[in-house]
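pinging the channel bc i need a second pair of eyes. not urgent but kinda urgent?? the chain im working w is below, pasted from the shared doc
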Amino acid sequence: MGVPKIQKKGLIDRPRDIDLINKLAVSPLDESEVYTFKVKLCDNDVDRVGDKMTDQFLNEVANSVVGVTGLLDHDWSANNQFTRMYAAEVVESPTELTKLGEHRKYVLGRAYTLNKYTDFIDKINSGLLKEASISFKSEGDTCSICGSPMEKSDSDIGCCKNGHVAGEVYDGHLCYNKLNHLKDVLEWSLVAVPCQSKAGISKSYGGKPMKRTELLIKQFMSSKTFKEAPKEEKEKLEEVIETTEDKELSDDEIKGLIEENARLQEENKSLTQKIADLEKSASEEKLRAAVSKAVDDMGPITPKVKEMFMKDIPWDKLRMEEDGQIPGMADVFAGLTPAYKGLFADEKPAEGGTQTGGTMTLEVENNTREKGCGTTEKSYTSPSKTKLGVGGNNVSKSVSNRPGFTWE
């Protein structure tokens, strides 16, 4: 349950307290007229919006809060003033540790009210009023990860110029907003749910503090993981958030949420990579299909010609744009076609060849000689000619180096 936030309730327990109180009173008060109690105002733990007070900040709060009025629920109304702080000090707990493993340090204040406010005092004594929250302004906030200045978003979550967000985990380290210097203490209040789990903080804008679950939800909904989630998943999450009753979370539950958020980020990163790989594969398939059609339009004389031509294409130099165009494809084809001269129907006759009607005849140097009985051996060295007749889909060859010898 932790240590109560209001301690040692009752009459004056130090002879000098009445002197400190009377420094704040317009008319001197008697000990029988006042009621005093102790309040834990704030500590050095990471709070629900990812802020953490430094030791210097705590000391500045203790020095500045004396004389500051106490309210209920940060309601800035003169009629809502029931108490005032007359002393404060920084205390270090020998047994309690923060989320970061440091000894807990907190500002312990001493406040007073008038005995005639019996309803207010009864609520303190019964434990109905025991959570405290302080409203302040800070300056010189820095990021715990890189030391850069922190700026606050509309959700009161700190973010630095390097993209580190308070409450997120980077390489196993929790990012938080370091509160280095106090600019002003506005007021302190007794509230239902404070921002710090052991005391509570309301930021400089004042107003009613958010519940812990609400703040964690805001952190998650501002994360990259949530923003990149599918629309249907977002709608389901928002529906659960709207219909789930708020409740206090333990430190273990908060730690679990942080770990779950880190796991979701890794899962999202993996899914993003898979989507990118699929998109790349689909793009490559569309590119190959478009290039294949372009090669078909050139009229390769056999499927083997097309296969070899496709293998020779430098695919790393080609890409398909969103409008379906392939920049540089014509240049790539122009560089390859000389090696395939005469093997595509849709081209000019090669040098030394003739074409009549729908048939092209290409003359290629060839030499064939008889080897043994009824066998031949070919080499492309002599000026003898082989003719390739192309008519429709039929290809015929004849060897004319020896009279009466035909190769089909």
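so Residues 1-14, 199-212, 348-408 have pLDDT under 50 and may be disordered. and The CA atoms of residues 4 and 130 lie 7 Å apart. — does that match what u expected or am i reading it wrong
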